[in-house]
């Protein structure tokens, strides 16, 4: 009896995991306001024996608002797993019998 080593191989599926950083962005509406100053003037005419011209002014304040979209981004790391084919081999021994003449 002779013990003979032999390599036995088989194909297996092995999980492969990889982390992929990805940037995700959203448009976020935001209201922006600013105060506008307007000066309004008009001329007043007054007659009292002589004509006087007076300029009367008033300043008005108006707040003007508009909605603008602002881009907000975050980096998100996603872990992806897929399966790849690999070959796995083991050394096995077997007994062989020979006919003795």
Question: Could you give a quick summary of the protein structure above?
Answer:
The protein has 101 residues and is mainly beta. The protein has strands at 2-48, 50-96.
Structural summary, described in words:
The protein is mainly β. Helix content is 0%, strand content 93%. The chain has no helices and 2 strands. It has strands spanning 2-48, 50-96. The chain has a two-stranded antiparallel sheet with strand order 1-2. A hairpin with a 1-residue loop joins strand 1 (2-48) and strand 2 (50-96).
Mean pLDDT, to the nearest integer, reads 83
β-strand number: 2
Q: What order do the helices and strands follow?
A: EE
Main sheet attributes: strand count, strand direction, barrel closure: 2 strands, antiparallel
Walk me through the topology.
Layout: E1 2-48, E2 50-96
Antiparallel strand pairs: 1-2
Comma- or semicolon-separated keywords:
101 residues, mainly beta, two-stranded antiparallel ribbon, 2 strands, rod-shaped
């Amino acid at each position: 009896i002779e013990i003979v080593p032999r390599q036995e191989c088989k194909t297996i599926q092995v999980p492969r995991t990889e982390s992929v950083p990805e940037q995700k962005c959203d448009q976020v509406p935001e209201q922006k306001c600013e105060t506008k100053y307007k000066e309004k003037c008009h001329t007043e005419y007054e007659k009292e024996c002589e004509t006087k011209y007076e300029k009367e002014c008033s300043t008005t304040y108006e707040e003007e608002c508009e909605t603008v979209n602002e881009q907000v981004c975050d980096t998100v790391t996603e872990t992806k797993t897929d399966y790849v084919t690999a070959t796995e081999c083991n050394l096995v021994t077997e007994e062989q019998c020979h006919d003795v003449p």
